[in-house]
Amino acid sequence: MEGEEDMIIKTKLLESVITFLNKNIIINLNIIGFIENEPDADIYVDNEKLPTGVVAKKGYFNFIFTQNDKFLDEALDTLYNDGFYGFSGVYRPLAQKIKSKFKIEWESRCALYYYPSNQIDMSLIKNTVKCAQINDAETINYYYTYKDETSLERIKLDLQKRYSSAVYVNGDIACWVLIHNDQSMGIMYTKKEYRKMGYAVDVTIDLTNKILKSGRIPFLQITEENIMSPGLAKKCGFIHDGVFSDWFGIVSGQSQ
């Protein structure tokens, strides 16, 4: 149909979608992870054969990437008419364009770190590391910075569906790191009584190795307020080459 390329089309996980996202793979690691981990997510493009933009959404949170302002305007007009919407890990230049068009309810600015090799030095692990157990979900949720009424169930799904790494001391979970549904590493925490023992390095290296073995690129998003995690990430071999990804919530239409 004439003009179809200018429309926002609901589609499925097509090879053309992954090919488009892989052209800027580091920026789009979270979108790729999300649509692979959430097969029932809604996916929108402007052209199923040669997309110039992708939106993926499920529930409140939305993932988006494009370098085409026409696609962006069409997507925002079509998909975000009235209500409250969250955006997850959006490439900062794109996030700034979106935020300029709406009232902002909240935001969290992050730096993206990724592991640049397909091998890792396992000798950096000095203690026994195991998978985190599902019966530790409530403990993990208790210490989670962004704990809310839905976080416990999300953590349980992370533990059940994806890799995790933890150090246990006399049966007590001391330090852990999980993988979110966008495939980013996160929810890391070390209990105060177990700090400065190297456990954070142990679990980070272990989980990074698991992700590498699965054929993926390990990555994490660190909020700009977090002054400790960048040092740990760099110590474990992660790099930040200037890519920033922002989380934010918008209010659209009559809801404003």
Radius of gyration: 19 Å
Question: How many extended strands?
Answer: 11
Summarize model confidence as the mean pLDDT. Answer: 95
Strand content: 25-35%
The class by helix and strand makeup works out as: alpha+beta
Instruction: Give, in spatial order, the strands making up the sheet with the most strands.
Output: 1-2-3-4-5-11-6-10
SSE succession = EHHEEEHEHEHHEEEHEHE
Terminal-residue CA separation: 36 Å
Count every helix, treating DSSP H or I runs of 4 or more residues as helices.
8
Percent range for helical residues? 25-40%
Largest sheet: 8 strands, mixed
What is the overall shape? globular
Written description of the protein model:
The chain is 29% helix and 29% strand. The protein has 256 residues and is an alpha+beta fold. The strands form 2 sheets. Strands 1-2-3-4-5-11-6-10 form an 8-stranded mixed sheet, sandwiched between helices. The model has no long low-confidence stretch (mean pLDDT 95).
